[in-house]
Design goal:
The complex is a heterodimer of chains A (about 150) and B (about 650). Chain A is an all-alpha fold. Chain A has 6 helices and no strands. Chain A folds into 2 domains: about 1-95, Orthogonal Bundle (Helicase, Ruva Protein, domain 3); about 105-150. Chain A starts with a helix and ends with a helix. Chain B has about 650 residues and is α+β, with helices and mostly antiparallel strands. In chain B, strand 8 and strand 9 form a beta hairpin. In chain B, helix 8 (about 200-230) packs antiparallel against helix 20 (about 620-640) and helix 15 (about 425-440) runs antiparallel to helix 16 (about 450-465). Chain B starts with a helix and ends in a 17-residue tail after the last helix. The chains are: A mainly alpha (about 150), B alpha+beta (about 650). Chains A and B meet through helix 1 and helix 5 of A and helix 12, helix 13, strand 1, strand 6 and strand 8 of B.
Chain lengths: ~150, ~650
């Protein structure tokens, strides 16, 4: 319960400022800064609810933004930065879950759903085609029909 | 005293809802006229008592009766009246009461409306509605009584969460609830059909208007919520793939699929089992949405009422409702007879294609939202599934629908002619390609995919009307106008709603050209963003009814001529000591300049985030256009349901084979 309350306060605090990336955090090199923005938009602010560190005002998000920029300035590749953060904070920090044994099902699920749906629809359609159209009218039925329509 | 009366009214409503469900089921079996009439009266009674309870709570808010705990915790005597009223549903207890109010109102209108609704079907539908109402009324009375008192009453209330003090809140939850709860009618019809073991075109004809109405409200509610987040949260984003947003998107996807499969069922009596399943799924997803928001299982920016103890009760409701209906489905669905045959290339086939992709997109959202929970429960591993996952899975599942939509509209029922349909849309295709090419040439060196996506949007807008064009242009040109007037309104409804999707697609594609600038500014400083230049004129303190703010006024210049001004503010609500950001929006045509402020430093400088967002309003206008299309179609249905078949009837969308 206390966890949830504190989470709520973090959330409220993080909504307040609404200006996540501070001008003084930004790198001079625009290419590097663009990479930093892109990277931080896919990293989770660990104390917030569903916010990337790029969107969040929480102090931790600030620290992580600065950290990401330090690593990039030190010459790390994007992948290096991600690996560094995962080593420190676990996979929870990645908003784009890495593809591994634990997440294979997650990534495959949408396409499995599509395939399963397609298979289901195809099976339903074929069953009906196999069942064929209704049997033609017998002579007796045809005679009755003709009588009914007045021919 | 009036609060206690409200509480008592809820108790009476619960008792009557139980009567409604038991008598309704009995009436459905016995076909006894007195029981049928009693079911209807019970539904009206439940509605009347819930309205009374809601009115009692609203009164407590309006007169600021702080001896009612709910009012004391969520209102304040200096709040503007509009927020006092919307505060009624800006908290957990009140929002559940609103949920039940909408549910009871829908049930009452089923009881009153449609003389041609078969009595057995009506009784069973009302019985199921009564069960849902009873579950939720029991939930309110057991865990979330909005009428409990505090003694001694505080002198002043604790104020409404400032984020919720906004016109958006006054509109967003009621719209969304109308949508969520509207799905309950389709659900009740589905369960009623399963109980009765009978389902036919009459069933589909009655379900469609309800589903359509629910879908319109959901569409508007989601769009409203998205716009609210856009201007209130101050990040300039409009969709965060937040669990609660997903919770509203999933029923929307399912309801959209249901609308289309119900068409097939009404016209051709095919896809019966699938349609019933979709109706169950759509409402189940609405319930799961409620569960996600209310239980604290997935906290998010929207979860203003978080309490795990209540989660258990809602989980119980979920298990009973979803589990029960799916069990009934598994037991009874195989007894439903299969309907008409159709070739894969046909209008039915196109609608199946639509359902397939919408259902897969819905599954992707569902799995993405719940996978982290399941994984943590099973293995203890914590992962995040964020926006990149949803963008990478949902967008590819939507793209085929965009391509197929105008084509499908031009296919005939039973057996279509793909080549003929392609011929009818070739003009639309040419326009779309031309539009994409012009945009690509004009923005050469910029984003690559965006012009293609804009072409997709244009293809949808023009292509949606190609069917009407083809139908009107057949025969003598002199009679063109009369043929246009003679078309059923639902044909225009379909075209307009599909065109609305195109409008939204263009708005989404244009986000590629949004420009962002972040800088520290002082009075007199200039900043360039996109085609505009902003000058910070002044930062002045102001006082509102229940807040203080520092308002920064900017002048907007284009080619060094002043074109407008915008005010962006940092607000503080002293009662809760909570700051908010009031983004400044300057609308030019369908684009906006968006200004949001950071902390104001002691030396008078302020961090500023400025965006130029061309075409951004199209995202939400598209949803409004979709809703207008739905309303057009609904107005047509209302004329047709119940009336004897009009003389000039080939039914709306069934061209001769």
């Amino acid at each position: 319960m206390r966890l949830i309350i504190s989470a709520f306060f973090f959330l409220v605090a993080s909504l307040g400022g609404a200006l996540a990336v501070q001008p003084n955090e930004m790198l001079r090199d625009p290419a590097l800064e663009a990479r930093a923005r892109q990277l931080s938009s896919e990293l989770r602010c660990l104390v917030c609810q569903n916010q990337s560190i790029d969107d969040s005002d929480a102090p931790l998000a600030h620290d992580l933004r600065v950290l990401v920029r330090e690593r990039l300035t030190a010459g790390d590749s994007d992948e290096d930065v991600r690996r560094y953060l995962v080593a420190r904070y676990g996979e929870f920090v990645l908003l784009r879950p890495a593809l591994n044994a634990r997440t294979a099902l997650l990534w495959a699920a949408p396409f499995l759903a599509l395939l399963a749906g397609a298979a289901l629809m195809l099976a339903g359609w074929r069953r009906r085609v196999v069942a064929g159209p209704p049997a033609p009218l017998s002579a007796e039925e045809r005679e009755r029909l003709d009588r009914l329509v007045g021919r | 005293m009036i609060a206690e009366a409200g509480h008592f009214a809820l108790l009476l409503a619960l008792a009557l809802a139980i009567v409604q469900s038991c008598v309704g089921l009995w009436a459905g079996r016995s076909r006894d006229a007195a029981l049928i009439a009693m079911t209807r009266s019970a539904a009206l009674g439940v509605c009347a008592f819930v309205v009374a309870a809601f009115a009692a709570l609203t009164r407590a808010y309006v007169i600021s009766d702080f001896s009612v705990r709910n009012v004391a915790e969520n209102s304040n005597s200096v709040m503007p009246l509009i927020y006092k009223v919307s505060g009624v549903w800006g908290n957990h207890e009140g929002s559940v009461l609103l949920w039940v109010l909408v549910l009871a109102a829908f049930a009452a209108s089923v009881a009153l409306r449609g003389r041609d609704l078969p009595d057995v079907l009506r009784s069973n539908v009302l019985a199921v509605q009564g069960m849902i109402a009873a579950l939720f009324l029991a939930f309110i009375l057991a865990t979330s009584n909005p009428f409990s008192r505090i003694d001694p009453a505080p002198f002043e209330g604790a104020d409404l969460n400032p984020l919720l003090q906004d016109l958006g809140l006054a509109i967003h939850p009621p719209l969304l609830y109308l949508g969520y709860v509207g799905c309950s009618i389709a659900f009740s019809f589905a369960v009623a059909a399963l109980i009765d073991g009978r389902i036919d075109a009459v069933w589909a004809k009655h379900v469609r208007p309800w589903t359509l109405a629910a879908w319109i409200f959901l569409t508007l509610g989601i769009a409203m919520g998205s716009y609210w987040a856009y201007y209130e949260l101050g990040w300039g984003g409009f969709w965060f793939w937040d669990p609660v947003e997903n919770a509203s998107l999933m029923p929307w996807l399912a309801a959209t699929a249901l609308l289309h499969s119900a068409v097939v069922m009404e016209k051709r009596e095919a896809l019966k089992i699938w349609t019933v399943l979709l109706a169950i799924v759509a409402f189940s997803l609405s319930l799961i949405g409620t569960f996600l928001v209310r239980s604290g299982v997935l906290t998010s920016v929207h979860a203003f009422a978080v309490d795990p103890a209540r989660g258990v009760f809602i989980l119980g409701i979920l298990v009973v409702t979803i589990g029960g209906s799916l069990t009934l489905f598994a037991w009874r669905a195989p007894m439903l007879k299969h309907g008409g045959l159709f070739a894969p290339v046909s209008r039915e086939g196109a609608l199946v294609f639509n359902n397939l992709f919408l259902a897969a997109a819905c599954a992707a959202v569902f799995i993405g939202t719940l996978y982290p929970l399941a994984l943590e429960a099973l293995t203890g591993a914590k992962i995040s599934v964020g926006p990149p996952f949803f963008n990478m899975t949902v967008i590819p599942l939507m793209a085929p629908l965009i391509i197929a939509m105008p084509l499908g509209q031009n296919l005939a029922w039973k057996r279509g002619d793909l080549l003929g349909a392609a011929q009818r849309v070739q003009l639309s295709f040419a326009v779309a390609v031309a539009a994409a090419a012009i945009i690509a040439a004009a923005t050469w060196g910029g984003p690559v995919l965006a012009p293609i996506a804009i072409g997709g949007g244009v293809w949808l807008i023009v292509g949606s009307f190609s069917e009407i064009g083809a139908r009107v242009s057949r025969g003598a040109p002199s009679a063109l106008a009369s043929r246009l007037i003679g078309l059923p309104r639902s044909a225009f409804g379909t075209a307009v709603a599909h065109a609305g999707v195109g409008v939204t697609v263009i708005g989404l594609a244009a986000t590629a050209w949004h420009v962002e600038r972040i800088a520290t500014m002082r009075s007199g400083d200039m900043i360039d963003v996109g085609a505009y230049r902003l000058r910070l004129d002044s930062i002045t303190p102001r006082t509102g009814a229940n807040y203080r703010e520092d308002a920064a006024r900017f002048t907007i210049l284009k080619d060094s001529a002043e074109v407008g001004s915008v005010v962006s503010a940092k607000r503080i609500y002293p009662i809760r000591q909570m700051p908010t950001t009031e983004a400044g929006l300057w609308t030019h045509g369908i684009g906006q300049v968006y200004v949001s402020l950071g902390e104001i430093e002691t030396d008078g400088s302020v961090a500023v985030r400025v965006y130029d967002k061309p075409l951004v309003l199209l995202i939400w206008l598209g949803a409004v256009v979709m809703a207008i299309g739905g309303a057009l179609s609904l107005s047509d249905r209302r004329r047709r349901v119940g009336a004897p078949r009009p003389a000039r009837a080939p039914p709306a969308m069934a061209p001769a084979e």
